Amino acid sequence: TASTTTPQINLYQAPPDLGEKIDTALDATVGINCISGGWIHRGSGWPLDAPSGSATIIVTNHHVIKECVGPDKGTVDIDVRGQYGTGQIINYDAEYDLAIIETSLALTPLPTAGWPQIGHWVMAVGNPLGFVGSVNTGRVSNLTSFEIVHDVSTNSGNSGGPLINAAGQVVGVHYAGYADDFVEGVNFAIALRMLCDKLLVCDNEQWQ
Q1: N or C: which end of the chain has fewer CB within 10 A?
Q2: Per-residue b/e over 185-198, b at no fewer than 16 CB within 10 Å?
């Protein structure tokens, strides 16, 4: 009987099926639009495999949705490559700049993984400056107790989007980067285990 083996993924290199992984990420990554006071605050988000009945759970940044937070947590508009819907803000954590949104839009959750290693290849997917479905690649350059430091080029609108490794797994949630005349290539993603601290009932050891 012939046996099959799963090929080992070299997480330090771009995957050979990069095109397929990009397509999967683009199909899942959404635009988040918080409309408040005549302004539109734009960011990105991605679907997490988390129990919530028939609804889809989307992860994003707190700073993307904070202007839409009200007594009932509030709502935001969601754009899935031209498919529009609404999302209910169900929880957020300002300290770690994370938020959870629930929507009836059908999205396939992205797989997740624990901490990457310094030097791992990663890609950021999001909607920087209104360019929907943008993909940039780079490497993990450092790690802190709760952040992944990376050199992937990102801009306003990438916030809340997934940072994805060579296996196609989300390893962090992009939230910030330096932008001045003296520093470049220093950007930050929040580690997934921080979702367990205040937002989800989960065992954060799964994302160690």
Answers
A1: N
A2: eebbbbbbbbbeee
